[in-house]
Amino acid sequence: MTKQSFLCFSFLFLFLHHSATTTRAQSSPAQAPSHGESAQSPAQAPSQLLAQPPSQTLAPAQAPSEVPLVQAPPRRAKPAPTNVTKILEKAGSFGVLIRILKNTQVINQIENQLNTSNSLTILAPTNGAFSGLKAGTLNSLSTEQKVQLVQYHILPSFISLSNFQTLSNPVRTQASNTDEYPLNITTQSNWVNISTGLVNTSISGTVYADNQLAIYKVDRVLLPLGIFASRPKAPAPAPTLAKPNKEFSSSSSSSSSPSSSTALDGPAAVLEASNALSLAKNSMVLGLAVVLAVFSVMSV
User: Fold this and answer.
1) What's the whole-model pTM score?
2) Which of 22, 189, 198, 215 has the highest local Cβ count within 10 Å?
């Protein structure tokens, strides 16, 4: 009985000792060194961490993300500049107008205005409109007059067909001024009449229209007063009296005094001739009186 109690007590002691040892090993922070490294106490670990440089303890810095937090709206593609030449070429029957626009370089001004967000309205004469002019009309114009003629067909704003009725006359064009280049526009329903003072015509169709540029077809060339109006002729100079023949003057003055050797013009010449004739008559009378006196003396 005593041996059994001793054995039970021994097994119980071993079990309690093993349990206590296992519990102490699990709750201890110290770790066994690995691969032959010397063991360190828990008190030494923090000091070693503090002694290490920051680059070894902190995570490496990451590059900034290229994805923005707020997405920008998509950019609108810049529209291509309006090419008036291509529009007129595609429409057809505007070859003469295209040639004049290029020769006068007005086409460059038009494109520059459209590229800077300015608006324009072009009244485009057809080839038939230019054929209706008198022969040599365009060739008789100077370069400046051709430029003004083309500018006279351009209005400095976009005008739709329905807005022509809102214009006030005379309508301003890109020519010099409204005094020498007046343009009057009247409307009735969709009919638009154009008058220059020399030409009356109307818009016969729309060639091109957007919110910036409008091109309308006209069947006659708009002739402004400042270029084609007939001006009064200058008065003719006053007629001058013809000078007498030098030979006649010299022969007629040989019997007169030396002061009358120079030919005189007009009434002065007549007066001089009259004086010479009177002098000659007086001389003849005096000579006759002298002869009579001598004859009377001799007869006595």
Assistant:
1) 0.55
2) 215
Residue 24 to residues 19, 29, 195, 216, 280, Cα–Cα distance (Å): 9, 10, 115, 103, 178
Order across the sheet with 184-188: list the strands: 154-155, 120-125, 213-218, 200-209, 191-195, 184-188
| Rounded (10°) CA dihedral 190, 191, 194, 195 | -140
Full pLDDT tens readout for the chain, 300 residues: 566 666 666 667 676 766 666 666 555 554 544 444 444 444 454 445 444 555 555 556 566 656 666 666 776 666 677 899 999 999 999 999 999 999 999 999 999 999 988 899 999 999 999 999 999 999 999 999 999 999 999 999 999 998 999 999 999 999 977 788 999 999 988 899 999 999 999 999 999 999 899 999 999 999 999 999 865 555 555 555 555 555 545 554 444 444 444 444 555 555 565 666 666 666 676 666 666 665 665 655
Domain ranges across the chain: 84-228, 246-299
Provide the 8-state DSSP code for 46. Answer: H
Residue holding tokens 């309308």?
A: 216
Domain covering 84-228, topology:
FAS1 domain (2.30.180)
Among 142, 85, 120, 121, residue whose Cα is nearest residue 194: 121
Q: Which helix (H) or strand (E) holds 26?
A: helix 2-27
